[in-house]
Amino acid sequence: MTKQETYEYLTNCGIPYEITEHAAVYNMEELDAIELPYPDCDAKNLFVRDDKKRNYYLITVKGDKRVDLKEFRKAHGLRNLSFASADDLMSIMKLIPGAVTPLGLLNDEERKVTLYLDAAFGDGLIGIHPNDNTASVWLKATDLVKVLEDHGSPVNVVEI
To answer: How far apart, in whole angstroms, are the C-alpha atoms of residue 131 and residue 136?
Structure first.
């Protein structure tokens, strides 16, 4: 899904959202340099895989949080984790590094990726890329979960 197709999908699902267009960003440091309307609601996304390359996970947390993959793995009963490759990212979610987003799960036709969403977002806003790193889309975290679950993507809202 392109950026525009993502907006249309959200609209067709009846999900209210706001858009902030910005220069392309590839990491949280670059995002910090951009003036955002809800900086406390931006998300950091880690696309990881297990050591057998069988299971893929997207870990989405508040932008200022750090994730210890070893502790995360233990807390959720997963195999050893490492970052997935850019090739895996493109083949599964049709995204490039820097554009990773939970909305990329809408491109995951086989539902291979399980989302772990930080419970800290609660029912407040979350800022994520719309499958393109030249914008941020702001929507309620609960609406994001609904859209992804309706799509058939596995979603876990957990303390991270």
So the answer is: 9
Across the chain, the runs of DSSP E, i.e. the strands, are 18-21, 43-50, 56-62, 81-83, 113-118, 125-128, 135-140, 155-158
For residue 45, the model assigns a pLDDT of 95
Once rounded to an integer, what is the mean pLDDT over residues 62-72? 93
Token pair, residue 79, equals 């195999």
The domain 3-158: what is its CATH number? 3.90.960.10
Collect all residues with Cβ–Cβ distance below 8 Å to 134 and sequence separation of at least 6. Answer: 3, 21, 22, 23, 24
Strands 113-118 and 135-140: unpaired
CB 140 within 8 A of CB 14: no
Q: In which element (H, E) is residue 39 found?
A: none
Give yes or no for a contact between 131 and 101, defined as CB atoms under 8 angstroms apart: yes
User: Does residue 112 or residue 29 have the better pLDDT?
Assistant: 112
The full set of domain ranges for the chain reads 3-158
Contact indicator for 102, 144 with CB cutoff of 8 Å:
yes
